[in-house]
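Record type: monomer structure entry
Structure origin: computed from sequence
Chain ID: A
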Amino acid sequence: MMPAILAVFLSVSGGNIKAEYVLGKQKKQVVLSGKKNATLKKFDAIYTIIENKQTGRSKELKALVAELSHELVDPAADLIAQSDRINFIIEKPLVRCAFDLLEFKGKPLYLSHSVTYSAFGYVAKNPDMQMQGAYFVADASTDPEDGFKKASKLIPKSLWESVENSSLSEIGREGSYNVLAISGHGDLNNNNSGSIAINDEELDSDTMENIDVALAYLDSCQQGANWDFIETFHNEKNASFMVAPITSNDAGDSSTLTVVWFFEELKKTRDAATALHKTRSKLYEHYRKAGLDPVTIINKAFCFRLYEFRRPVD
């Protein structure tokens, strides 16, 4: 049976934020009239708390999630209850908004549903994906536990290289693989433009224009909110999926578990959305059982996001 995918079109117009929910022939619309600035301020506060691991603000975080869930989730509760997956279709001003952290029946959406993001009005189709080789590039300072080397061994016809033995030209060349995975230091400015450090060079959207892969996996701080990459992959149709964290992520620890568990699940399911959902669920349980505080658990379990683009899967 095909999964029931709830498409949520999110947009900003004037002083309003609009959410349109579409599940098959069923539709609902919510308009937060005159609440754009107040709503974005709430999402910005959530982002800051998670980004900076502000554990002393856990009660505030819980309250913010509850308020936004009441405004944006509760009105579509019946459609959410009928769906297996949620596709948030966003615009640039909303790229840092943690919509899948909002709660349905007291449970965060990233734990209750498989979640995909997309942009420019594109509705995710969640196609199956079979990995046909991968190129893993890792900086030892962002991948100190060799998670990328471990993950590369899960995929036949894969190559792992330390960043010192790679380069922008090597990353940008056409290869026999359909997965590109990079672990490096990410940088993002206030306009949601950024890049990844590769030795003394910067991997930005110009380099990304040259790749052609089914999946780009970026273990680099905040690159899941890098609108340059999102726009490039949409316009060039040269990546089917991107997985990357919207906030800063661990060097090792949760990032090691994320890359290994994600590729294990992707190999088993051939489904990127399911693979990330299972990975984040396992991370949540892992750190909950370890007794960590709620903010730190979210920082470690939630931050990676899946985007789907227009490029057909190989």
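Annotation 1: The chain has two domains: 5-119, 134-308.
Annotation 2: The mean pLDDT is 96.
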